[in-house]
């Protein structure tokens, strides 16, 4: 059988031969292993035609860079745990890592971890998202999980562990965008009146007048405020605090780390604003300048009262001892402000919607609005559509214009 004899092929070329075991074999060089030796893949079939077809398919997959790397195969669970701790954690922000870590630990590993990474299909993901929502997870949570695994699998593709990213093909959970009603001018005035009775009252004026995000407002430092020139620079974001126990194993307090009497902060208080658009300068209205000067004087009095207990950290909106405000406490103060002002409930972020709507009502040019709100140029139009709302006064103005045109009698009659 002349066609069954094994012949020597040039280095790197595939080979097909008939073995002593009575089967046809193929060897395909697909790359180089980590130790520098050629990565030769073995194929075994019953007939020469079958092994030839399989060899050609592997060669095409090699040329298209769709072959998995050699070595022990990853499961979805082992890859996600490796990715989130060793690849994502060193390079993303603390808040982004927290979101990834929760998605991986709480949802993805329990739900999909047993799958082999190279055998995960889009249908597996879509079924998993449906099960998540069937067990009570919101569409927003499922959508966030989808984004996390899409990023993780994209890195696996980039590193050659899998040929394609099934999360790019799978349909993401559908999100129904909420209809958000900004507060009208009368409500804003009621909120400002009620806020004037609170400590750090300027905090809420900044939110409603300038549209600062919570992290931007709580991360504001006096060095970023120029009251004489009338502007504020947005450069820092307050991070949510994270703690570990400080009580030690010998005398555990039995509480969660955040409530430990000797808790230790494990996360920095603030970070620099990451985007170019987010780092911005915003002009201050004269009434707000006056209010911030008063706020500065009140804080100076608190500094004197606290004495040696005062922490000089330079925060515009600080605790009674000068430290940073907790985002969680800030949120609850907002909710109490709404109740005390007799205003309908709303998210803290709705103050930002309100500020954007005021800018629309004033007819501020788009480019100026984008700068004040800190929107990236590429998505600014979408953000304006999301944040700026057609309000009652605008609708009444248009209705009046239509009425004047259709029902006003022609002049001269």
Please give the structural blueprint.
Blueprint: E1 15-18, E2 24-32, E3 38-45, H1 48-63, H2 76-88, H3 94-112, H4 122-134, H5 139-158, H6 166-169, H7 185-195, H8 202-210, H9 214-218, E4 225-226, E5 231-234, E6 236-238, E7 243-244, E8 264-265, E9 270-272, E10 280-283, H10 286-306, H11 327-340, H12 350-361, H13 366-373, H14 380-387, H15 392-407
Please describe the structure with a list of short key phrases separated by commas or semicolons.
413 residues, DNA polymerase, domain 1, 3 domains, three-stranded antiparallel beta sheet, 15 helices, 10 strands, DNA-binding
Structural write-up:
By secondary structure, the chain is mostly helical. The chain folds into three domains: 62 residues, no CATH class; 94 residues, DNA polymerase, domain 1 (Orthogonal Bundle), CATH 1.10.150.130; 166 residues, Orthogonal Bundle (hpI Integrase, Chain A), CATH 1.10.443.10. 46% of the residues lie in helices and 10% in strands. The chain contains 15 helices and ten strands. The strands form four sheets. A three-stranded antiparallel β-sheet has the order 1-2-3, with helices on one face. A three-stranded antiparallel β-sheet has the order 4-5-10, with no helix packed on it. Strand 1 and strand 2 form a beta hairpin. It starts with 14 loop residues before the first strand and ends in a 6-residue tail after the last helix. The model has no long low-confidence stretch (mean pLDDT 83).
């Amino acid at each position: 059988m002349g066609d069954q004899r094994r012949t020597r092929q040039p280095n790197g070329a595939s080979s097909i031969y008939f073995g002593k075991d009575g089967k046809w074999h193929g060897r395909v060089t697909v790359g180089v292993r980590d130790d520098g030796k050629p990565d030769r893949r073995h194929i075994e079939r019953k007939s020469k035609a079958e092994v030839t077809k399989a060899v050609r398919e592997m060669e095409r997959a090699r040329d298209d860079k769709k072959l998995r790397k050699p070595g022990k195969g990853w499961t979805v669970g082992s890859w996600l745990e490796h990715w989130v701790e060793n690849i994502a954690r060193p390079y993303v922000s603390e808040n982004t890592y927290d979101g990834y870590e929760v998605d991986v630990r709480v949802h993805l590993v329990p739900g999909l971890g047993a799958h082999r990474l190279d055998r995960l299909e889009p249908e597996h993901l879509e079924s998993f998202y449906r099960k998540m929502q069937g067990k009570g997870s919101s569409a927003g949570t499922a959508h966030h999980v989808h984004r996390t695994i899409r990023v993780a699998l994209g890195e696996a593709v980039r590193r050659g562990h899998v040929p394609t990213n099934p999360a790019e093909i799978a349909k993401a959970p559908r999100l129904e965008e909420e209809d958000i009603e900004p507060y009208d001018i009368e409500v804003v005035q009621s909120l400002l009146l009620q806020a004037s009775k609170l400590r750090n009252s300027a905090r809420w004026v900044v939110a409603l007048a300038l549209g600062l995000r919570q992290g931007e407002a709580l991360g504001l430092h006096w060095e970023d405020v120029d009251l004489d020139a009338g502007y504020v620079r947005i450069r820092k974001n307050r991070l949510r605090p994270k703690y570990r126990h400080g009580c030690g194993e010998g005398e555990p307090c039995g509480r969660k780390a955040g409530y430990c009497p000797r808790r230790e902060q494990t996360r920095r208080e603030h970070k620099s604003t990451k985007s170019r658009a987010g780092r911005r300068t915003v002009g201050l209205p004269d009434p707000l300048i006056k209010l911030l000067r008063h706020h500065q004087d009140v804080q100076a009095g608190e500094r004197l009262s606290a004495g040696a207990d005062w922490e000089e950290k330079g925060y515009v909106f600080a605790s009674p001892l000068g430290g940073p405000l907790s985002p969680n406490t800030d949120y609850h103060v907002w909710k109490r402000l709404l109740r005390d002002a007799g205003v309908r409930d709303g998210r803290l972020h709705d103050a930002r919607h309100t500020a954007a709507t005021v800018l629309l009502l004033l007819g501020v040019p788009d480019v100026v609005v984008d700068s004040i709100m800190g929107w990236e140029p590429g998505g600014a139009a979408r953000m304006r559509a999301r944040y700026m709302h057609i309000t009652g006064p605008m609708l009444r103005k248009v209705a009046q214009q239509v009425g004047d045109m259709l029902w006003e009698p022609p002049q001269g009659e």
